[in-house]
Amino acid sequence: MTADSVAVPFEVGVTRQGGLVVLTVQGDVDLVTAPQLTESIDTVLTELEPTALIVDLTNVPFLASMGMSVLAEASRRIGDAAVFAVVADGPSTARPLTMMGLDQHFVIYTDLDAAVSALAA
Q1: Domain 11-120: top CATH class
Q2: What pTM, to 2 d.p., does this model score?
Q3: Are strands 11-17 and 20-26 parallel, antiparallel or unpaired?
Q4: How do the domains of the chain map onto residue ranges?
């Protein structure tokens, strides 16, 4: 970390629009924070039973392999019970997801509005 950079605290926010749930993630998703993301996803799936779940990584400056594993596992667990999508754009999120082939397992949108429009319909 440089003197000019500031660590962004890890947070997961939840918003619901009918059966559509958006998890808005902020901060690095790595070995330390991935369990918190897993817990948030588990809570949403068991308590809210969404028809669609969007994980918004717009405010994630770093996505480690552990974070990608959490997303892959969430997609696998959800299966046909709901639609699962991720919002990711840029080299820190979309690029690693695509390079790992995860775009073959779930849809990746470049912005939240597009994801909500597509999945709320």
Answers
A1: alpha beta
A2: 0.93
A3: antiparallel
A4: 11-120
